Amino acid sequence: MLASLPDGGRAEMSRAIAAAASAQSAWADTPAPVRGKILAAAGRLMLERIDLLAHLMTREQGKPLRESRTEIRYAASFLSWFAGEAERIYGRQIPSADPTKRLLVLKRPVGITAGVTPWNFPAAMITRKLGPALAAGCTMVVKPSELTPLSALEIARVFADAGLPTGVFSVVAGLDAADIVEPVMADMRVRKLSFTGSTTVGTALMAQAASTMKRLSLELGGHAPFLVFEDADLDIAVDAAVASKMRNMGQTCVAANRFYVHRAVVDRFAERLAQRLGELVVGNGLDDRTDVGPLISEPAVAKVEAHVADAIANGADLLTGGSRTVAGGPFFAPTVLRGVDPTMRISREETFGPVVAISTFESEQEAVALANSTPYGLAAYYFTRDVGRVLRLAERLEFGVIGANDGIPSTAQAPFGGIKASGIGHEGGAEGIAEYLDVKYLSIGSIEAAVD
Ligand code: SIN
Hints:
By secondary structure, the protein is an alpha/beta fold. The protein has 2 domains: 10-220 and 422-442, Aldehyde Dehydrogenase, Chain A, domain 1 (3-Layer(aba) Sandwich), CATH 3.40.605.10; 224-404, 3-Layer(aba) Sandwich (Aldehyde Dehydrogenase, Chain A, domain 2), CATH 3.40.309. The chain contains 15 helices and 18 strands. The strands form 4 sheets. The chain has a 7-stranded mixed sheet, with helices on both faces. Helix 6 (149-161) links the parallel strand 4 and strand 5 (169-171). The longest helix is centred in the first third of the chain and has 21 residues, at 65-85. The chain starts with 9 loop residues before the first helix and ends in an 8-residue tail after the last strand. The structure holds succinic acid. The site of succinic acid (SIN) has 8 residues, from loops. Residues 2-441 form the Aldehyde dehydrogenase domain. InterPro entries: Ald_DH/histidinol_DH, Ald_DH_C, Ald_DH_N, Aldehyde_DH_dom, Aldehyde_DH_Superfamily. Keywords: Oxidoreductase. This is NAD-dependent succinate-semialdehyde dehydrogenase. Pfam families: Aldedh (PF00171).
């Protein structure tokens, strides 16, 4: 056993909201550079504690240590980026048609906010919400996944050590998510909820948020297409495929899931990718030689297994992997399937595992139609040397995050968010902090001219 924790519920969340309510106005009135300094200090502390935080993450979540370190750096980058953004919350003055009036646009923190975060990025999905919330002058209560509470609690310790006043950020960890979140949804004082998780839960939260008219950011499921054109640099495409597909063992919302490869290059692409994935070392994430750790749970492996079995039963060819590996744990071998078609489960559902499913196309038009043939709209990737095509596809693909010759586009400086069934709102970039700010319009009439 890794640790034992108290099982928080609605009572603890109500206390956290009350603490946030007591801290809210003082935090909103704290000068932005001071808020930024605390955020920057927390970011630095995360980096100083990277070994401790990364080990904890690997032990509670499974991802290899190298990846946990990368995630801690990614998590800290949201704090340093939004530390700077705190000082750039600008309003504006609008030239008035009426010369007696002054028209101003003001930005104010929305107030108390809540974050509900997933297990696949136990640190970065917290700081991606918390960074902009604190920078904007909001307080935040966080409910982390019941599978990864320890990383969240260590992040709370980082902020306390960085000098964040009591009540500005609280974590409530527990097993019953619906019970913990109930006071968040019912309380009018909580003005915003940011959720990362499944489309099913996101849809339910959206309905619940209506009664208090809460603002929402929903980062939901994806089913990312990965298009390889006949003019692509195949070395770049294969590297990007490995990076996107194998990050966190394929358990990311932005993971490339549906590979559409031009018929002229499919043999070379599939062969090289199968070779690369076949060489990866699967095992305990704490071992430095490990490239691929366990999946999060037994049901997660069972789903991957079912998708692969369904594809093979319906005619797909297995190039590598295809089964569980390392007896006794939820491990699945990196897998490449060829000859996948749109009727197979793997083409229709998010796999959330280390499986590359390859189909072919013959024209750009066909590739775009295949890519868009999903209710999801989170991430899309394509590989081409044609600059015109780079721009054309960015306009035609119905996705919020697009990587052209890039398998890992996510970064703190840029807006991350899906369209269609993948959610609403953005995290990261200038758009990320706007989600935590109310816009107020002030019209000042009848300012008397100065009299000497
Ligand atoms: C996610 O999969 O939910 C987030 C991935 C990212 O930030 O790149």
